[in-house]
Write a structure and sequence with these properties.
Blueprint (H helix, E strand, L loop, with lengths): L13 E6 L6 H10 L5 E6 L14 H14 L7 E5 L6 H11 L5 E3 L3 H9 L3 E3 L11 H10 L9 H9 L2 H9 L5
Parallel strand pairs: 1-2, 1-4, 2-3, 4-5
Helix pairs in contact: 2-6
Length: 184
């Protein structure tokens, strides 16, 4: 394990990365790999943990946890280097950071490109760094879900283990069912 400047004090340099991961895709994996170049451990927050079976949040927290875990295992990222922690939305921005802190081990730096997430963490006194985008126009959960709905290739946008898992849980059919209407 890479040592940080504080390793002599017995402390681990730990980062925080928040996402909904609906679903986890190759862009998420690239960002996590980049962040792990800077920290010893990474806390991966599954945001909006209470939501599932919606067009923008079709997968359950447990399903997303498995997707992330399997993708990181497939990428041969050591399990000791990450924590995966679900955190529900509070819908009260002033309390959200306190909620995150109560669910997680101590962290040094948060990584986010989301303006609200970054602002809330900065206002609470945390160091926030932007995440490098990796082919953002292609690697986005919105694009993956769109392709699933349209019957186009979505599997090339996610790690193989994630595609296998989504097929196992019949995730494409779930998304299509959620998109259906009873209006004539």
């Amino acid at each position: 394990m890479r040592k940080s400047g504080r390793a002599s004090q017995g402390m681990v340099k730990r980062g925080l990365y928040v996402g909904r991961f609906q679903p986890f895709h190759k862009g998420h994996l690239a960002v996590i790999s980049d962040i792990l170049e800077e920290v010893d451990e990474l806390i991966i927050i599954i945001g909006s943990a209470q939501y599932s079976h919606r067009m923008d949040n079709p997968f359950t927290t447990g399903e997303r946890l498995i997707m992330i875990h399997e993708a990181l295992k497939e990428a041969e990222i050591q399990l000791e280097r990450f924590w995966i922690i679900p955190v529900p939305d509070l819908h009260r921005h002033m309390l959200w950071v306190a909620e995150v802190v109560s669910y997680t081990p101590r962290f040094d730096t948060a990584y986010s490109n989301d303006p609200l997430t970054s602002r809330l963490l900065k206002e609470a006194g945390f160091k926030v760094k932007p995440c490098p985008f990796h082919r953002r126009n292609l690697y986005s959960a919105t694009e993956v879900r769109r392709r699933m709905l349209e019957g186009k290739d979505w599997e090339s946008l996610v790690p193989r283990s994630v595609a296998t898992y989504i097929k196992h849980i019949d995730g494409v059919q779930r998304l299509q069912d959620l998109n259906a209407t009873d209006k004539a």
